[in-house]
Amino acid sequence: MNVHRRPTVATGQVSEFDAGTGLGTVTADDGTEARFHCTQIAGGTREIPVGARVSFTVLAGRGGRWEAGNLASTPHAGSADG
Predict the structure, then answer these.
(1) Secondary structure percentages of the chain, helix, strand, coil, to 5
(2) Is residue 80 part of a domain?
(3) Which is nearest to 67 in space by CA: 76, 56, 75, 59?
(4) What average pLDDT does the segment 13-24 reach?
(5) CATH code at position 64
């Protein structure tokens, strides 16, 4: 992965979320994964369902890892909602 060309905004799907710890993982549409904390979920909620489609901002995190921030639910492609 060339981090210098990584987009700052991405879309993907929540692949893991543990409400007890508030930690989760989002898998971007390009297959890369980024961890997130529940405080990064937009809208003031602290939970998000596994499988939810989201847009997110890619942020530099601890230990040189990428993290997801500003997670916002997006409608599924082809859905009646959007």
Answers:
(1) 15, 45, 40
(2) no
(3) 59
(4) 97
(5) 2.40.50.140
